[in-house]
Amino acid sequence: IENLGFLFEMKGRFKEAEALYKRALDLSQRQPARHCQIKYQLAEFYRSGQQADLSAKFQAEAENEAKRC
Questions:
Q1: Which of 13, 14, 27, 57 is nearest to 39 (CA)?
Q2: pTM for this one?
């Protein structure tokens, strides 16, 4: 799902990409390392979309989780 989100992002279909990334995040709840990685991906997604507040949020969450993985 994350890869499909990336493909939609590359095609400029940002709403669909965002939904897929969030779905991948939900599905990764039981896999801490994967969950952290998807949060980093969301941070980059929002950074490229000029949404600094959301980017910073996911970046901080990913960094905090990475310390525990």
A1: 57
A2: 0.86
Side-chain half-sphere exposure of 42, counting CA atoms within 13 A? 27
Give the model confidence (pLDDT) of 37-47 as tens digits: 999 999 999 99
User: Which phi and psi angles does 51 have, rounded to 5°?
Assistant: -115, 75
The 3-state secondary structure of the chain reads CHHHHHHHHHCCCHHHHHHHHHHHHHHCCCCHHHHHHHHHHHHHHHHHCCCHHHHHHHHHHHHHHHHHC
Residue 52 CB neighbour total at 10 angstroms = 11
